[in-house]
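thought: fold this chain, then report.
action: predict
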Amino acid sequence: RVLPNVYRVHGAARTWLGELQAAALWAGANGALSHGAAAAWWGFSRFESAPPELTLLDRRKPPPRVKSHSADAFAPGEVVLLRGLRVTSRLRTLLDLAGTCDPLTARACVDEAMRRRWTTAEQLSRLVERSPHTRGVELLRSLVREYEGGDGPTESELELRVYELLDSEGLPRPMKQRPVMAGGRLRRLDFFFPSTPIVLEADGFAWHAPLAAFERERARHNALTMKGLVVIRWTWRAISDEPEKCAAQLRALLSLYGWR
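observation:
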Protein backbone atom coordinates (compact mmCIF):
# COMPACT_ATOMS: atom_id res chain seq x y z
CA ARG A 1 0.00 0.00 0.00
CA VAL A 2 1.52 3.30 -1.13
CA LEU A 3 -1.48 5.61 -0.58
CA PRO A 4 -5.12 4.92 0.29
CA ASN A 5 -6.46 2.60 -2.45
CA VAL A 6 -3.12 2.76 -4.31
CA TYR A 7 -0.74 -0.21 -4.30
CA ARG A 8 2.53 -1.22 -5.90
CA VAL A 9 3.86 -4.67 -6.73
CA HIS A 10 5.65 -6.19 -3.76
CA GLY A 11 9.39 -5.75 -4.08
CA ALA A 12 9.21 -2.94 -6.65
CA ALA A 13 11.53 -0.05 -5.84
CA ARG A 14 10.08 3.24 -4.67
CA THR A 15 10.95 5.86 -7.30
CA TRP A 16 10.13 9.49 -8.05
CA LEU A 17 8.08 8.37 -11.02
CA GLY A 18 6.16 5.95 -8.84
CA GLU A 19 5.46 8.63 -6.25
CA LEU A 20 3.92 10.91 -8.89
CA GLN A 21 1.93 8.05 -10.38
CA ALA A 22 0.60 7.10 -6.96
CA ALA A 23 -0.46 10.68 -6.20
CA ALA A 24 -2.24 11.02 -9.54
CA LEU A 25 -4.01 7.69 -9.07
CA TRP A 26 -5.11 8.67 -5.55
CA ALA A 27 -6.50 12.01 -6.84
CA GLY A 28 -8.44 10.32 -9.63
CA ALA A 29 -10.92 12.34 -11.66
CA ASN A 30 -11.28 14.95 -8.90
CA GLY A 31 -7.73 16.22 -9.18
CA ALA A 32 -4.55 16.45 -11.20
CA LEU A 33 -0.81 16.81 -10.77
CA SER A 34 -0.10 20.54 -10.61
CA HIS A 35 2.39 23.25 -9.70
CA GLY A 36 5.93 21.88 -9.27
CA ALA A 37 4.93 18.27 -9.94
CA ALA A 38 3.21 19.26 -13.18
CA ALA A 39 6.22 21.35 -14.18
CA ALA A 40 8.46 18.35 -13.60
CA TRP A 41 6.14 16.06 -15.60
CA TRP A 42 6.16 18.54 -18.49
CA GLY A 43 9.96 18.74 -18.38
CA PHE A 44 10.65 22.22 -17.00
CA SER A 45 14.33 22.28 -16.12
CA ARG A 46 13.89 24.00 -12.74
CA PHE A 47 11.57 21.29 -11.43
CA GLU A 48 13.42 18.09 -12.14
CA SER A 49 12.19 15.39 -9.72
CA ALA A 50 9.80 17.74 -7.88
CA PRO A 51 7.77 16.03 -5.12
CA PRO A 52 4.09 15.08 -5.58
CA GLU A 53 1.75 18.08 -5.68
CA LEU A 54 -1.94 18.09 -6.58
CA THR A 55 -4.84 20.41 -7.21
CA LEU A 56 -8.04 18.83 -5.88
CA LEU A 57 -11.65 19.68 -6.69
CA ASP A 58 -12.91 18.11 -3.49
CA ARG A 59 -11.84 18.82 0.06
CA ARG A 60 -10.04 15.58 0.80
CA LYS A 61 -7.11 15.73 3.12
CA PRO A 62 -3.99 14.73 1.16
CA PRO A 63 -1.85 11.82 2.30
CA PRO A 64 1.51 12.47 3.96
CA ARG A 65 4.25 13.70 1.60
CA VAL A 66 1.68 14.94 -0.92
CA LYS A 67 1.11 18.71 -1.10
CA SER A 68 -2.30 19.85 -2.28
CA HIS A 69 -4.21 22.92 -3.43
CA SER A 70 -7.97 23.41 -3.74
CA ALA A 71 -9.97 24.56 -6.75
CA ASP A 72 -13.67 24.73 -7.49
CA ALA A 73 -13.24 23.57 -11.08
CA PHE A 74 -10.84 23.33 -13.99
CA ALA A 75 -11.57 25.33 -17.12
CA PRO A 76 -11.79 23.37 -20.38
CA GLY A 77 -8.34 22.29 -21.48
CA GLU A 78 -6.67 22.99 -18.14
CA VAL A 79 -6.20 19.28 -17.40
CA VAL A 80 -4.77 16.83 -19.93
CA LEU A 81 -3.69 13.20 -19.93
CA LEU A 82 0.08 13.15 -20.36
CA ARG A 83 1.89 9.79 -20.43
CA GLY A 84 -0.98 8.21 -18.58
CA LEU A 85 -1.38 10.78 -15.79
CA ARG A 86 -3.83 13.62 -15.28
CA VAL A 87 -1.81 16.83 -15.15
CA THR A 88 -2.53 20.53 -15.48
CA SER A 89 -1.80 21.99 -18.92
CA ARG A 90 1.40 23.93 -19.48
CA LEU A 91 -0.47 27.24 -19.39
CA ARG A 92 -2.34 26.38 -16.20
CA THR A 93 0.93 25.17 -14.70
CA LEU A 94 2.65 28.49 -15.53
CA LEU A 95 -0.21 30.39 -13.88
CA ASP A 96 0.04 28.20 -10.77
CA LEU A 97 3.80 28.68 -10.59
CA ALA A 98 3.45 32.46 -10.97
CA GLY A 99 1.21 32.47 -7.93
CA THR A 100 3.28 30.24 -5.67
CA CYS A 101 6.95 30.45 -6.67
CA ASP A 102 9.42 33.27 -6.25
CA PRO A 103 9.38 35.68 -9.24
CA LEU A 104 12.80 34.53 -10.43
CA THR A 105 11.69 30.90 -10.75
CA ALA A 106 8.33 31.75 -12.31
CA ARG A 107 9.96 34.06 -14.84
CA ALA A 108 12.53 31.43 -15.75
CA CYS A 109 9.77 28.88 -16.39
CA VAL A 110 7.80 31.25 -18.62
CA ASP A 111 11.02 32.11 -20.44
CA GLU A 112 11.73 28.41 -20.97
CA ALA A 113 8.21 27.79 -22.27
CA MET A 114 8.63 30.63 -24.77
CA ARG A 115 12.11 29.55 -25.79
CA ARG A 116 11.05 25.94 -26.37
CA ARG A 117 7.91 27.06 -28.21
CA TRP A 118 5.61 25.46 -25.69
CA THR A 119 3.52 28.62 -25.67
CA THR A 120 3.29 32.04 -27.32
CA ALA A 121 2.76 35.58 -26.12
CA GLU A 122 -0.74 35.46 -27.60
CA GLN A 123 -1.63 32.36 -25.59
CA LEU A 124 -0.23 33.90 -22.41
CA SER A 125 -2.20 37.08 -23.08
CA ARG A 126 -5.45 35.13 -23.44
CA LEU A 127 -4.63 33.26 -20.20
CA VAL A 128 -4.20 36.58 -18.40
CA GLU A 129 -7.48 37.92 -19.81
CA ARG A 130 -9.53 34.94 -18.63
CA SER A 131 -7.85 34.79 -15.19
CA PRO A 132 -8.12 38.40 -13.95
CA HIS A 133 -8.39 37.59 -10.25
CA THR A 134 -6.10 34.57 -10.06
CA ARG A 135 -3.06 34.71 -7.85
CA GLY A 136 0.05 35.25 -9.95
CA VAL A 137 -1.72 36.84 -12.91
CA GLU A 138 -0.03 40.23 -12.37
CA LEU A 139 3.41 38.69 -12.85
CA LEU A 140 2.25 37.00 -16.05
CA ARG A 141 0.69 40.27 -17.24
CA SER A 142 4.00 42.09 -16.82
CA LEU A 143 5.82 39.35 -18.71
CA VAL A 144 3.31 39.49 -21.57
CA ARG A 145 3.97 43.23 -21.89
CA GLU A 146 7.68 42.47 -22.23
CA TYR A 147 7.17 39.65 -24.72
CA GLU A 148 5.01 41.89 -26.88
CA GLY A 149 7.95 44.26 -27.32
CA GLY A 150 6.81 47.24 -25.27
CA ASP A 151 9.19 50.04 -24.23
CA GLY A 152 7.85 50.10 -20.68
CA PRO A 153 9.89 50.15 -17.47
CA THR A 154 12.44 47.44 -16.83
CA GLU A 155 11.07 44.60 -14.70
CA SER A 156 12.35 45.13 -11.14
CA GLU A 157 13.69 41.61 -10.75
CA LEU A 158 15.65 41.85 -14.00
CA GLU A 159 17.01 45.25 -12.97
CA LEU A 160 18.11 43.83 -9.63
CA ARG A 161 19.95 40.96 -11.29
CA VAL A 162 21.76 43.34 -13.66
CA TYR A 163 22.90 45.54 -10.76
CA GLU A 164 23.96 42.50 -8.71
CA LEU A 165 26.11 41.29 -11.60
CA LEU A 166 27.68 44.71 -12.20
CA ASP A 167 28.45 45.18 -8.50
CA SER A 168 29.92 41.71 -8.08
CA GLU A 169 32.24 42.26 -11.07
CA GLY A 170 33.31 45.75 -10.01
CA LEU A 171 31.69 47.38 -13.05
CA PRO A 172 30.14 50.86 -12.93
CA ARG A 173 26.44 51.34 -12.40
CA PRO A 174 24.64 52.88 -15.38
CA MET A 175 21.75 55.32 -15.58
CA LYS A 176 18.38 53.61 -15.91
CA GLN A 177 15.54 54.41 -18.32
CA ARG A 178 17.20 57.41 -19.95
CA PRO A 179 14.95 58.89 -22.69
CA VAL A 180 16.42 59.53 -26.14
CA MET A 181 14.97 60.48 -29.52
CA ALA A 182 15.92 57.86 -32.12
CA GLY A 183 14.24 56.88 -35.36
CA GLY A 184 11.66 59.63 -35.01
CA ARG A 185 10.32 58.55 -31.63
CA LEU A 186 11.14 58.81 -27.96
CA ARG A 187 12.75 55.65 -26.64
CA ARG A 188 13.91 54.70 -23.17
CA LEU A 189 17.27 53.04 -22.79
CA ASP A 190 17.28 50.17 -20.30
CA PHE A 191 20.73 51.09 -19.00
CA PHE A 192 23.06 53.87 -20.23
CA PHE A 193 26.69 54.40 -19.20
CA PRO A 194 27.43 58.17 -18.98
CA SER A 195 30.47 59.53 -20.84
CA THR A 196 30.21 56.63 -23.28
CA PRO A 197 27.80 55.72 -26.09
CA ILE A 198 27.21 52.30 -24.50
CA VAL A 199 23.66 51.09 -23.96
CA LEU A 200 22.88 47.85 -22.13
CA GLU A 201 19.56 46.32 -23.17
CA ALA A 202 18.36 43.56 -20.83
CA ASP A 203 15.78 41.06 -22.09
CA GLY A 204 13.60 39.10 -19.70
CA PHE A 205 13.36 36.33 -22.28
CA ALA A 206 15.59 34.63 -24.81
CA TRP A 207 13.34 34.33 -27.83
CA HIS A 208 10.85 36.84 -29.24
CA ALA A 209 7.91 34.67 -30.22
CA PRO A 210 5.63 37.07 -32.14
CA LEU A 211 7.04 38.22 -35.48
CA ALA A 212 5.78 41.76 -34.89
CA ALA A 213 7.73 42.01 -31.63
CA PHE A 214 10.83 40.62 -33.34
CA GLU A 215 10.56 43.28 -36.07
CA ARG A 216 10.01 46.08 -33.54
CA GLU A 217 13.09 45.07 -31.59
CA ARG A 218 15.23 45.12 -34.75
CA ALA A 219 13.87 48.52 -35.73
CA ARG A 220 14.65 49.82 -32.23
CA HIS A 221 18.18 48.43 -32.39
CA ASN A 222 18.80 50.01 -35.80
CA ALA A 223 17.44 53.38 -34.65
CA LEU A 224 19.76 53.42 -31.63
CA THR A 225 22.73 52.45 -33.81
CA MET A 226 21.96 55.25 -36.28
CA LYS A 227 21.94 57.59 -33.26
CA GLY A 228 25.57 56.61 -32.65
CA LEU A 229 24.87 54.42 -29.64
CA VAL A 230 26.64 51.10 -29.07
CA VAL A 231 24.11 48.51 -27.92
CA ILE A 232 24.99 45.36 -26.00
CA ARG A 233 22.21 42.89 -25.15
CA TRP A 234 21.95 40.60 -22.16
CA THR A 235 19.22 37.97 -21.97
CA TRP A 236 17.85 36.66 -18.72
CA ARG A 237 19.35 33.28 -19.52
CA ALA A 238 22.80 34.75 -20.17
CA ILE A 239 22.74 36.73 -16.92
CA SER A 240 21.76 33.60 -15.00
CA ASP A 241 23.93 31.01 -16.77
CA GLU A 242 26.95 32.96 -18.06
CA PRO A 243 27.44 36.02 -15.81
CA GLU A 244 31.23 36.00 -16.17
CA LYS A 245 30.97 36.05 -19.96
CA CYS A 246 28.49 38.96 -19.84
CA ALA A 247 30.76 40.90 -17.51
CA ALA A 248 33.86 40.25 -19.63
CA GLN A 249 32.16 41.52 -22.79
CA LEU A 250 30.93 44.67 -21.08
CA ARG A 251 34.32 45.28 -19.43
CA ALA A 252 36.08 45.02 -22.80
CA LEU A 253 33.60 47.42 -24.38
CA LEU A 254 33.89 49.94 -21.56
CA SER A 255 37.68 49.86 -21.83
CA LEU A 256 37.43 51.01 -25.44
CA TYR A 257 35.94 54.25 -24.16
CA GLY A 258 38.46 54.92 -21.42
CA TRP A 259 37.02 53.06 -18.45
CA ARG A 260 39.60 51.44 -16.18
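thought: worth noting. The radius of gyration is 22 Å.
final: C-alpha coordinates above.
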